[in-house]
Design brief:
The structure holds two protein chains of two kinds. By secondary structure, chain A is α+β, with helices and mostly antiparallel strands. Chain A is about 30% helix and about 25% strand. Chain A has a four-stranded antiparallel beta sheet. Chain B is an alpha+beta fold. Chain B is built from five helices and six strands; from the N terminus they run H-H-H-E-E-H-E-E-H-E-E. The chains are: A alpha+beta, B alpha+beta. The interface between A and B is large, with 85 and 89 residues. Strand 3 of chain A pairs antiparallel with strand 6 of chain B. Chain A: It catalyses: siroheme + 2 H(+) = 12,18-didecarboxysiroheme + 2 CO2.
């Protein structure tokens, strides 16, 4: 099985016992306390100052370890109840251009290149497409195919039929429950 | 939960990120874009708490980039016979490295995301899931990222 050779860690984690940063990451799994001074509350729980917590979170965002610090919505609760992983078989020499064109289009939350797994899986471009119903998703896919030069290419729509788990990754050493 | 215009404005605003200051909810209430709603700090906190309670917010915290965290990340899929779907999904969910897990309408019917503390752990966890379920796990690691935007307009 080959694994993500492209994703070489940019930040090597220090060995040894969990430090302040691990305590913070573990505490953040519970979500931000909804109080006037949430970073003070976190700091009190893990033995750090409010300013230290703010600086550490700012560091996560500024180094790119996190793309933002905010809310993540349950899109189904907002009415986006039809969700499909739409996969495309794009000639390798065109996949970067097509991917760039698809990214940023309305209704597309994710657009990645991933490996084909022949013979069972010929697709190399993966998108997540969201709508208020399946017909809306199908119409969006047609619109994207026409607008991004994908018409006529093999594709499949894999609608989500059950959601068994949807959580954040668990970061912070020695914190697994 | 019925969302009103204030809820929608707060959801859209807070998906862009919370101000990293001592009193972030007061800062949001005071932003020019929020001025028309006449909110104060307590009202913002109360609204956000109600949205979280109702499940509209699934999380409030960092949106991580797994690679930059030094961890491993891969999409994975299994062809699970329909009659075993619930049981296999439960076995897969039991691994703490499984962050997301969905059934999709395809022969490859169970799709999940492995997020591990180190890149090497991805293959180890996939092998452990294969051993536990007796089913092949196919890995689909990201080769290139063209877009990732999990913001949804409320």
């Amino acid at each position: 099985m080959d694994v993500n050779g492209a994703s070489v860690a940019e930040r090597v984690r220090p060995a040894g016992p969990p430090g302040d940063n691990d305590r913070l990451l573990r505490r953040l799994r519970d979500g931000l306390p909804l109080v006037a001074r949430p970073f003070l509350a976190i700091g009190q729980a893990i033995g750090q100052s409010e300013a230290g917590v703010i600086a550490a979170i700012r560091d996560l965002v500024e180094t790119g370890a996190a793309s933002r610090f905010g809310i993540i919505v349950d899109h189904a609760a907002l009415g986006f109840t039809a969700n499909a992983m739409v996969v495309w078989d794009v000639p390798d020499e065109r996949v970067d251009a097509v991917g760039a064109a698809l990214g940023g289009r309305r209704g597309v939350s994710l657009c990645y290149r991933r490996p084909r797994r022949p013979p069972v899986w010929p697709y190399n471009l993966f998108t997540m497409i969201h709508g208020r119903n399946r017909d809306e998703v199908r119409a969006l896919v047609e619109e994207l195919a026409d607008g991004c030069g994908l018409a006529g290419l093999p594709r499949e729509l894999l609608f989500t039929v059950r959601r068994f788990k949807q959580t954040a990754p668990c970061y912070g050493r020695d914190g697994r429950e | 939960m019925e969302l009103d215009a204030i809820d929608r404005a707060l959801i859209n605003r807070l998906q862009d990120g919370l101000p990293l200051t001592s009193r972030p909810f007061a800062a949001v209430a005071a932003e020019p874009a929020m001025a028309e709603f006449g909110l104060d700090e307590d009202m913002v906190i109360g609204r956000v708490a109600a949205l979280r309670e109702a499940g509209v917010l699934s999380r409030f915290g960092p949106l991580y980039n797994a690679e930059r965290m030094g961890g491993g990340l891969s999409l994975a899929a299994m062809a699970v016979p329909a009659e075993r779907l619930d049981a296999v999904a439960a076995l897969v969910n039991a691994f703490p490295e499984v962050a997301h897990n969905y059934a999709r309408d395809h022969a490859l019917s169970l799709w999940f995301v492995l997020a591990t503390e180190t890149p090497e752990r991805v293959a180890e966890v996939a092998a452990a899931i294969e051993a536990r379920t007796g089913l092949a796990v196919r890995l689909f690691p990201k080769l290139a990222e063209y877009a990732l935007d999990l913001r949804f307009e409320a």
